[in-house]
Amino acid sequence: MRPNPAKTRGLKILFLALAASRLLAQTALASDLERKFSIELTYERIDLIFKLKPFDYTYLTKTQRVDFLAGKKFKTGWGDLRAFAYLKIDNHNQSWLGTRVDFGRKALRERLNLDLELRFFQGLNGNSGNHFYVIPSAYYTLDKKGRFTIGPSGYGKKVVREKPFFYVGLDGLIKLTGFLSTLISYSRDTYGAGDMVWWILYLNF
Predict the structure, then answer these.
(1) Do β-strands 34-45 and 195-204 pair in parallel, antiparallel, or remain unpaired?
(2) What sign results for the dihedral spanned by CA atoms 78, 155, 86, 162?
(3) pLDDT the model gives residue 132
(4) Which of 47, 78, 99, 189 has a CA positioned 20 to 30 A from the CA of residue 5?
(5) 71-78 long-range contacts, Cβ below 8 Å, gap at least 24?
(6) Could you tell me the pTM of the whole model?
(7) What is the number of other CB atoms lying within 10 angstroms of the CB of residue 155?
(8) CB 122 within 8 A of CB 159
(9) Domain boundaries, the chain
(10) 23 φ, ψ to 5°?
(11) Which has the closest alpha carbon to 71: 57, 81, 59?
């Protein structure tokens, strides 16, 4: 049985991305520019959705996190709704259990994607503060094949008894193969914390 060329190419891109993220880590601490690199695996079967983030690294804080999600997709009169149970653990002895709810709607012949993502987390130990996220986005697909998407997004977080942040910026999404895509985001914190670059690889099975 011959290997699938698309999947082989996708795995090569994945390995190169991991190597590049390690190289970036050596220089990131010399700058106040926040940098994040994530890998997200998704498996969907009918209306069930399973997600794993085996690698989510924030450079300035040297935080590496692993996320596990299990959820279900619902059709509503307004649009799509996805609800997840969410567990995340990091390398600073912090862990949380929470929920994530995504509200999505398409417009302009399904080329405009409007999405609002809400996450709520309860800390599982004394090191882990309760917190929530608000992540809105409005993406427009530039071509009929759906390979290139661009649009503004927000990324806000509030931890109990800590100052919040809310990054606002521009994202670009490129579909590399049938199962592999990548997102590059550049944003600025409205509370003055600085700028952030976020690179994500998505693999769908």
Answers:
(1) parallel
(2) negative
(3) 98
(4) 47
(5) 71/100, 72/47, 72/48, 73/44, 73/47, 73/48, 73/49, 74/47, 78/103, 78/105
(6) 0.84
(7) 22
(8) no
(9) 5-204
(10) -65, -40
(11) 81
> For residue 89, how many C-alpha atoms fall within 13 Å in the half-sphere facing its CB?
4
- Number of residues in the chain: 205
- Which tokens sit at 182? 């990548």
Could you state, in chain order, the average pLDDT of each consecutive group of 10 residues for the chain (205 residues)?
55 53 46 90 96 97 97 91 98 98 95 97 97 98 95 97 96 96 97 95 96
CA distance 53 to 23: 20
Name the CATH superfamily for 5-204.
monomeric porin ompg (2.40.160.40)
Q: Which of 160, 124, 129, 155 is nearest to 36 (CA)?
A: 155
pLDDT at residue 2, as a whole number: 56
Residue with tokens 């071509």: 143
Question: How far apart are the C-alpha atoms of 184 and 197, rounded to whole Å?
Answer: 7
Please list the residues that pair with 82 across neighbouring strands.
73, 102
Query: And the tokens for 31?
Result: 């700058």
